[in-house]
Design a protein that fits this description.
The chain is mainly beta and 427 residues long. It is built from two helices and 33 strands. It folds into two domains: 266 residues, Neuraminidase, CATH 2.120.10; 87 residues, Immunoglobulin-like, CATH 2.60.40. A hairpin with a 2-residue loop joins strand 14 and strand 15. It is globular, with a radius of gyration of 26 Å. The N and C termini lie far apart (73 Å).
């Protein structure tokens, strides 16, 4: 029996309509299931029903005192103005008018262990360093007067830098100009086209400007390849201060910006963003106490969320090196019956959330040394410290009464290991 051709076409069109209708319904349901809002439990406007972070989180005022690692850096780097961590050391450079050199610093003593001269380069105003797997980038874009027309970024190959000892390496230039700048009159520290911050991500370099007038920071992007480019703003951060350095964590999901206002330093933390939408996620400011008059200039992640910050020499304070860890403010929390802390496999905290009574289970990771536990609130204050560990079962039980609701960082460590994670206290 032969089926009429028009009947086959009718059935086909009907099925196509049905499948299209099903797809539309599923898409609609998926759309309704997405709720935009603040997804960070540490924020003042946290929305527990939100499934998409819209970058709207607002945080309580937070202040800390970073650890001083080196109270007086060598004279060779008195004007340290940028930092990266590479080849087991911190690398820095001096800013305007100094030699076209980069210096490797010991992370414990701050002493210079290598000096690398850069050929085919002039230090007009070197302000920051950035890196990827192959290259180090040197930002010659300091612009206090706001009238420079020779802004550039030098690129040097890592493979040409000796693993130890001094050396000389050639550089190529990436030239650029701001497409939105319309006036080039001298305006010393009274313009919005200064820049001291650079990161590398994907196939591009990103700049955060230092706006002397409105104390905001514009974000620009340009290719990593040698050439001449005109760049335009991609986004703006309401910095409320002067951005002087930037770094991107190794996995690419967190940025730290060092800053100061009236010579009172602070940092901005950018996290939980998508791709290169760096200002589309959470933006949290951490103020520094006891550091008035300190001019922070360089910042770099080292291992994990450990951050080093350098400050240049002023009339009152020597060049210094500081250290902090961003984990208390940027780790995401696992909620439910179990929450696995992120630093070690098999390290469990449960229940999470809890009311101050919880257990840590190290699995087979425990050692003969006792672990010290520290609980730190969202303001950076230590609210609990104790030794509490059952070596036979590799567990630690905690009962901490009368803890206010909120997010806390738990540090659990001994001489061999350290675990860091978040827990939520909820009644």
């Amino acid at each position: 029996m032969q089926v009429p051709k028009n009947l086959i076409q009718y059935v086909f069109m009907s099925l196509k309509f049905v499948f299209s209708l099903i797809a539309a319904v599923l898409f609609s349901l998926n759309g309704f299931s997405q709720i935009s809002g603040c997804t960070d439990p540490q924020a003042l406007n946290y929305n527990p029903e939100a499934t998409v972070n819209d970058g709207s989180c607002v945080y309580p005022q937070t202040s800390i005192s970073p650890e001083i690692i080196v109270s007086s850096l060598p004279n060779a780097v008195n004007e340290t103005s940028g930092l990266i961590y590479w080849n087991e050391g911190l690398w820095t450079q001096n800013d305007s008018g100094n030699e076209p050199e980069i210096y490797k610093l010991d992370t414990i003593t701050g002493q210079v262990s290598q000096t690398i001269a850069i050929e085919d380069a002039q230090n007009i105003d070197w302000e920051d360093l950035a890196q990827d797997e192959e290259f180090i980038y040197i930002g010659d874009f300091g612009n206090n007067l706001g009238n420079r027309t020779d802004l550039k970024i030098y690129r040097i190959e890592k493979s040409l830098i000796p693993l130890s000892g001094n050396g000389i390496v050639p550089a190529t230039a990436i030239n650029f100009s701001y497409g939105d700048q319309t006036t080039f009159k001298k305006a010393n520290r009274n313009n919005d086209y200064d820049c001291e911050s650079l990161i590398a991500f994907g196939d591009s370099l990103y700049l955060f400007t230092k706006n002397w007038v409105n104390e905001q920071s514009r974000l620009y992007a340009l290719p990593k390849l040698s050439g001449t480019y005109e760049v335009f703003p991609r986004d703006t951060l309401a910095a409320d201060g002067l951005i002087t350095g930037a770094d991107l964590i190794e996995d690419g999901n967190e940025i730290v910006l060092c800053s100061y206002k009236n010579y009172s330093p602070f940092i901005w933390l950018l996290f939980d963003f998508q791709g290169n939408d760096f200002l589309g996620g959470n933006k949290r400011r951490i103020n520094f106490t006891g550091m008035l008059g300190t001019q922070t200039e360089g910042v770099s992640y080292t291992y994990g969320k450990n951050v080093f910050i350098s400050s240049e020499k002023t009339q009152l304070i020597s060049a210094r090196l500081f250290k902090l860890n961003t984990a208390p403010w940027t780790y995401t929390i696992s909620t439910g019956n179990d929450g696995q802390l992120p630093d070690k496999e098999g390290f469990l905290l449960y229940p999470n959330p809890n009311n101050g009574s919880f257990r840590i289970n190290l699995g087979a990771q425990c050692s003969n040394n006792n672990f010290l536990a520290e609980l730190i609130n969202s303001s950076g204050e230590r609210v609990f410290t104790d030794f509490c560990f059952n070596q036979a079962q590799c567990t630690a039980d905690f009962v901490i009464p009368q803890l206010p609701e909120g997010i806390y960082m738990l540090k659990f460590y001994n001489q061999e290991d350290m675990y860091i994670g978040k827990l939520m206290i909820a009644e």
